[in-house]
Design brief:
The complex is a heterodimer. Chain A is an alpha/beta fold. In chain A, the strands form two sheets. In chain A, strands 2-7-1-6-3 form a five-stranded mixed beta sheet, sandwiched between helices. A two-stranded parallel sheet of chain A has the order 4-5. The longest helix of chain A is centred in the middle third of the chain and has 13 residues. Chain B is built from two helices and 16 strands. Classes of the chains: A alpha/beta, B mainly beta.
Chain lengths: ~150, ~350
């Protein structure tokens, strides 16, 4: 995992081309969307914006429906660190600010990869993430670029 | 709290499947002072010191929602306690989003003012028990909520730069320096800007407001007072360090108040943090002397508070804090002091608190 962090840190410094897809082995998770969603790839920062509800519409106009994993899950920890670039506690802090200023509430949390997959299959605007080992039949994987 | 506890299982059930969501927070403290009573804290100590709130949110659609929050607050032995009800409506508003960037909120809305005004009672977000009194005190011109509207816009300025802007219009009420009389601000107009820098989690803020105030104690009965205020903020977090600094000025007919605060927090581990804070509020006041020909003039530091504290993240939703304060000023409650003639009082106080939110 430390090697992954180093790779990520180097990428963050812009040493590699900004639109390169993130190497699959550097992401211990898969970002998934509904199979009807035409979007194939997004920059990491834009994926982060989807989950922080800063972007609320897909390019085709459908509302974005992010779905999160349980705060204690390892995949949530990886997602916060690699996609948001923050510790889970910092992401939680962000959502508390949003909640108690009345601006927004966090995405619904699901307890497992299977529940996230079911949610994404059922909602055309959904975006979620699952661990890299999870089978993703019935949804599409989004390529995350740097 | 039994009511709040009964809603706990519903937390986190919001989202597309559920249009109704509940959130809340609670901070319970024990506080004790040495050398006098201040902020409701006396030498005997008190556990009647807490903040709590329950928030209900109903999403009519992804772009439209209603939000209401009721709060409960106890100030120990403070005379403010008799002027405020135990339970109050923090806010109740309708919010509509225009696309990703713009929104309007109508009703009673938290005023965007500095770093902490919108979350001033949420213990899990605050470095210490309360935000700095010099800038967010109960008896200042600005208050927690505006009855009116707030128009907001959030967007990118290109690259990693971002800008958040809120403009509000309406009225509000605030408790004055006597701790008993409320003033009413109307035709209030204000705004808050936050500039996000390319450096991660570094932002600069500037807010300003003006209002016409009825019932202000330092003017003739029946007269109105024009009051203005501004606040400048730095909020930066890099690695284990958090640094915040704020400067504000509030101007009223008889003078002005200038407050500043510097706060630093260092994470010793993933759970434990050390906090240090210094805050000052200076008063420049000139009022007619009812018994003499020359006006009464005060140019004093009415409030200086130095604090150190420990903050321990026990669980992801539970924060424990221990803090010690050294205070010098005119806010002593058991023996009021006169800013025109008396020296400031000095005392110490400490607060142990536990905060949670859901």
């Amino acid at each position: 995992m430390r090697a992954t962090v180093v790779v990520w840190a180097v990428m963050s410094l812009g040493v590699t081309r900004p639109t390169d897809p993130m190497p699959a082995r550097s992401l211990p998770l898969r970002v998934i969307v509904h199979e009807s969603n035409p979007v194939a790839e997004l920059p990491r920062a834009e994926v982060s914006r989807l989950f922080l509800k800063r972007t609320t519409r897909w390019a085709d106009g459908r509302p974005v429906q992010p779905v999160d994993q349980a705060a204690k899950s390892p995949v949530h920890h990886d997602f916060c660190r690699l996609i948001h670039g923050r510790q889970p506690s910092a992401v939680r802090h962000y959502w508390q600010q949003m909640i108690f200023s009345g601006r927004a509430v966090p995405p619904p949390e699901k307890a497992s990869d299977a529940e996230v997959l079911a949610f994404v299959r059922a909602n055309p605007g959904a975006v979620g993430y699952v661990s890299a080992a999870a089978p993703i039949a019935g949804v599409r994987e989004l390529t995350v670029t740097r | 709290m039994r009511l709040a506890a009964s809603f706990l299982p519903l937390a986190g059930q919001q989202g597309p499947e559920s249009q109704l969501s509940f959130h809340g927070f609670l901070t319970q403290a024990y506080a004790r002072a040495d050398g006098g009573q201040y902020l409701g804290i006396d030498e005997h100590g008190t556990t009647d010191y807490r903040t709590a709130a329950l928030q209900l949110r109903y999403d009519v659609s992804p772009r439209d929602n209603f939000v209401a929050q009721a709060s409960h607050e106890r100030y120990g032995h403070s005379p403010i306690q008799s002027s405020k009800s135990d339970i109050a409506l923090d806010w109740l508003f309708f919010q509509h989003h225009f696309g990703d960037a713009a929104s309007v909120r109508l009703g009673r809305v938290k005023i965007p003012w500095g770093i902490y005004n919108e979350v001033r009672d949420v213990g899990t977000l605050l470095p210490l028990y309360r935000p700095p009194v010099s800038l967010y005190g109960e008896q200042l011109f600005t208050t927690e909520a505006v009855d009116g509207m707030v128009v907001g816009h959030r967007g990118s300025l290109g690259g990693e730069w971002s800008l958040e802007a809120d403009i509000y219009y309406g009225g509000w009420r605030y408790l004055q320096h006597d701790g008993a009389t409320e003033a009413t601000a109307h035709d209030g107009l204000g705004g808050q800007l936050w500039l996000g820098l390319p450096a991660d989690r570094v932002r600069l803020g500037f807010g300003a407001a003006r209002a016409t105030v009825d019932g202000f104690l330092l003017v003739e009965p029946g007269a109105e007072d024009e009051q203005t205020g501004w606040i400048a903020s730095l909020d930066a977090e890099r690695g284990p360090l958090l640094l915040q600094g704020e400067l504000s000025r509030i101007t009223f007919g008889a003078g002005d108040l200038v407050g500043w605060v510097v706060l630093a927090r260092a994470a010793v581990s993933s759970r434990l943090g050390v906090v240090a804070q210094a805050e000052v509020l200076d008063l420049d006041l000139t009022v007619p002397d009812p018994g003499g020909s020359a006006p009464l003039v005060a140019d004093v530091t009415v409030h200086r508070d130095l604090a150190v504290g420990l903050r321990y993240l026990w669980r992801s939703t539970v924060v424990l804090k221990a803090e010690a304060h050294w205070y010098r000023g005119y806010g002593r409650e058991d023996r009021p002091t006169n800013v025109f003639s008396d020296p400031p009082a000095e005392l110490r106080y400490g607060i142990l608190s536990v905060s949670t939110s859901f």
